Fold this sequence. Notes:
- By secondary structure, the protein is an all-alpha fold.
- Helix content is 80%, strand content 0%.
- It is built from 18 helices and no strands.
- It has helices at 2-17, 21-34, 39-52, 57-69, 73-86, 91-104, 109-121, 125-138, 143-156, 161-174, 177-190, 195-207, 211-224, 229-256, 262-273, 277-287, 294-307, 311-322.
- It is elongated and about 110 Å long.
- The chain starts with a helix and ends with a helix.
Amino acid sequence: LEWNVFVREILAEIYTLSLKPELAIAKLLEISRLDLEKNDEVIAKLRTTLKSYPGHPQATLALAEALRRQRNLSEAIELYHDLAKNKPDFTDQAMLGYREILESFPDQALARTYLAEAFLAKKQIGEALIELERMMRLDPDTAELVVKKCREIIRGEPGLLEAHLVLGRAYLVLGDFQRATMEAENVLSVNKKLTAANLLLGEAYLKLNQNSKAVETLKNALFQEPFDLEIHKQYREAQERAAKQEIEKLKTKLAEDPWKVSWHFDLARLYLRLDQRPEAVRELQLTLKDQTRIPFACNLLGAIYRGEGRYDLAAAQFSRGLE
């Protein structure tokens, strides 16, 4: 290994003195790959090369790779970015550099930002939107930038539904739930069966505390994708929140009109939806004061007791319900 490195060092020096920078750069890069201890020395020589040949694409790419090996990611990313900006023919190489960084460091927001910009420059809108959303998930502070980029995309392609969805999700991150709702509704006006739009709208409704609307919207999404675990999760959350909201409303009504016994039965059903059995039993016992609702209350009480394995109590309630 030492002999291989030594030979390459001699060749790199010869090529440099012979004004053959591409060949010298290739040998320096081979040294960096063969012997990590030589990496700092290679970086210094590549910087010298760039002083003599400013903006040299091969030297820039080699320096960026050596800097990545040194874990100096920010400078490497900026080198790729400058190369793509000043030498558009090398955009693909710069994008490859971003991707290689992201393979090892998926949380590198700057690399993801520049990769998204490169996709936009190449008119690869779908790929750009994917990277913009990934970037926002990693760093919510980039949501404003995502909004700006999505608006630019929509100005050029107003009918691109995915751009509206990413824009809506960016509004959610920024806390602008009304605009998120508008973007989701715009998409659904074109395609009512788009699951992602229903999910976005359901989440926006939850944030706006419009829980009943969220339940209905997520129910539609669940109908389209019955095996999607994320939809199930959000649907359960929406149901729980809607139930809790209804419970508070009924409690307020009962405080104003405590003689409305039928509302206790409604409360019991809501508590059962939340799997709060003791509270449900309490409300059902209060419901028994209403003669018209005794059969329904007894049946529910019987079902609760049977579920708890208290079969004698369950039988008694079922019998009473039949009287």
